[in-house]
Design a protein that fits this description.
The chain is of the alpha/beta class and 251 residues long. It has a single domain, classed as Aldolase class I (TIM Barrel, Alpha-Beta Barrel). The chain is built from 11 helices and 8 strands. It has helices at residues 16-27, 46-52, 80-86, 96-101, 106-118, 131-135, 139-154, 180-195, 199-204, 215-222, 239-250; strands at residues 5-9, 36-40, 58-62, 90-93, 122-127, 163-166, 206-210, 229-232. It has an 8-stranded parallel beta barrel with strand order 1-2-3-4-5-6-7-8, surrounded by 6 helices. The chain is globular, with a radius of gyration of 17 Å. The two termini are 15 Å apart.
C-alpha cells in the first residue's frame, strides 16, 4: 500500500515574517498520521523552516538543485550536497515553470535528478503537458517522453527512490483542475510505462497530482487508484487550506 504524500510548493513567495506566520499556522494543524507531509520553501527560507519543524512530522524539500551534486564554482546555484547538509530530504526537478520559462530540457532535468539521488535526496520529477499539447491529443506522448528521458539515462530502478508529480501546465495557477478521471488516466499511463520496465517499482512509486489543487477537489482526486497525493501550489500558502488537503489525502 502506497503511503499518501502531500507536498506544498511555496514557489517564489515569502518573507521571514510571512514564513514565520505560515509555520505557526502549520504547527497548529492536526495532520493525519497516515499521510506524509512536505513543504518546499524558497532557498532563502529553507533554514528557517527546517529549524522550526525540527522534531515535527513535516519534512522540508528544495524547489531546485544544481546539475552537479557537489560544491563548486557555479555562482548562484545550490548543490544537492548543500541541500542535504542543511536538512532537506526532497527536491523538485523539472517543474514546468523551469522547463518553460527557464529553458530546462529533459537532459538538464535528468542531470538534476541524478545529482539529487547521488546525495541521497528524493527527487520529485515533475511532468506535464501544455494546453496546446492536450488539445492536440499529445498528453501521453509528452508525459511519456519526459518520463522516458530519466528511465533511459538512469534506469527504471531509480524510481524506487523517487516521486513523480503529474502537473498539467494548463492547470498550474489558473484555477483550472483536471477532472479526477483525466488525472487518473495520466497517472495510470505513467504507472503502466514504468510497469513495462519493472512491475515492482511501478507498484511502489508515488505519483502526485498538481495543478490548482484545493480542498474542495482533493477528496475526489485522491480517491483515484493511481493518485497518491498532491503537489500543491498556491493553496499551500494558506495553512488551513493546506491542512484540509492533507486530511483529504488521509480520508
Amino acid at each position: 500500500m502506497r503511503r499518501p504524500l502531500v507536498a506544498g510548493n511555496w514557489k517564489m513567495h515569502g518573507t521571514r515574517a510571512s514564513v514565520a506566520e505560515l509555520i505557526e499556522g502549520l504547527g497548529q494543524l492536526a495532520l493525519p498520521v497516515s499521510v506524509d507531509v512536505a513543504v518546499f520553501p524558497s532557498s532563502l527560507h529553507i533554514a528557517q523552516v527546517i529549524g522550526a519543524f525540527e522534531g515535527s512530522a513535516i519534512v522540508v524539500g528544495a524547489q531546485d538543485c544544481a546539475q552537479q551534486p557537489q560544491q563548486g564554482a557555479l555562482t548562484g546555484e545550490v548543490a544537492s550536497s548543500q541541500l542535504l547538509d542543511i536538512g532537506c530530504s526532497l527536491v523538485l526537478v523539472g517543474h514546468s515553470e523551469r522547463r518553460l520559462l527557464l529553458g530546462e530540457d529533459d537532459e538538464v532535468v535528468c542531470r538534476k535528478f541524478a545529482a539529487a539521488l547521488h546525495e541521497g535526496l528524493t527527487p520529485v520529477l515533475c511532468v506535464g503537458e501544455t494546453q496546446q499539447q492536450r488539445e492536440a491529443g499529445n498528453t501521453l506522448e509528452v508525459v511519456g517522453r519526459q518520463l522516458s528521458a530519466v528511465v533511459e539515462q538512469l534506469g527504471v530502478a531509480v524510481f524506487a527512490r523517487a516521486v513523480v508529480a503529474y502537473e498539467p501546465v494548463w492547470a498550474i495557477g489558473t484555477g483550472l483542475t483536471a477532472t479526477p478521471q483525466q488525472a487518473q488516466d495520466v497517472h495510470a499511463a505513467i504507472r503502466a510505462q514504468l510497469a513495462a520496465e519493472d512491475a515492482e517499482v511501478a507498484r511502489g512509486v508515488r505519483i502526485l497530482y498538481g495543478g490548482s489543487v484545493k480542498a474542495a477537489s482533493a477528496v475526489e482526486l485522491f480517491g483515484m487508484p493511481d493518485i497518491d497525493g498532491g503537489l500543491v501550489g498556491g493553496a499551500s500558502l494558506n495553512a488551513d487550506e493546506f491542512g484540509a488537503i492533507c486530511r483529504a489525502a488521509g480520508s
